[in-house]
Write a structure and sequence with these properties.
By secondary structure, the chain is α+β, with helices and mostly antiparallel strands. The protein is 14% helix and 31% strand. The strands form two sheets. A six-stranded antiparallel sheet has the order 4-5-6-7-10-11, covered by helices on one side. Strands 3-2-1-8-9 form a five-stranded mixed sheet. The C terminus is likely disordered.
């Protein structure tokens, strides 16, 4: 029962529910996610053609296609904790390689992650000494989006996000 981040590919869902792959149509992405949880579609997000989200245990996943995504295919995924400033591990692991990103405090992640992975996963506003846990991770594959492939929410321990 693990979410697995696959930069450039998408998000492997727990319980053999499938893979939310970048490049999927809205219908295909919703169909895949619906094997795991109830889908909430039609929410408004600035600059998005379409968006939907679902909650599994204490993990909220949002998928969307922005106005720059070619042919309105899925180009973005956000994986968040339902707690804004989490002070414990998530109920369901969110894996990146061999690490559970929501399973260890930020200061422990910064000690074990390779420097290039730290730069990829932790945004500039994250305090690397924080005893809180990451609150969000984002994957982007939109061709015109120049941001890094994966970035994190603050989870800095100061309550800001």
């Amino acid at each position: 029962m693990t979410f697995r981040l696959m930069p450039g590919t998408g998000l492997v869902l727990p319980a053999n529910a499938g893979v939310l792959r970048f490049g999927m149509t809205e219908h295909a992405a919703q169909w895949t996610a619906s094997t795991l949880a109830d889908i909430r579609a039609g929410g408004w997000m600035c600059g998005a053609h379409w968006t939907f989200f679902f909650v599994h245990c204490d993990i909220l996943v949002t998928a969307y296609a922005c106005t720059a995504c070619a042919d309105q295919i899925m180009g973005h995924l956000i994986v968040e904790r339902t707690e804004r400033v989490p002070d414990r591990a998530a109920d369901v692991p969110v894996a990146f390689g061999d690490f559970d990103l929501f399973g260890y405090p930020i200061h422990e992640l910064t000690e074990v992650l390779d420097p290039s992975d730290r730069k990829l996963l932790l945004s500039a506003d994250v305090n690397p000494q924080s005893t809180h846990y990451l609150s969000a991770v984002r994957l982007d594959a939109c061709e015109s989006d120049r941001r890094q492939v994966v970035s994190s929410g603050s989870g800095s321990g100061d309550g800001a996000r």
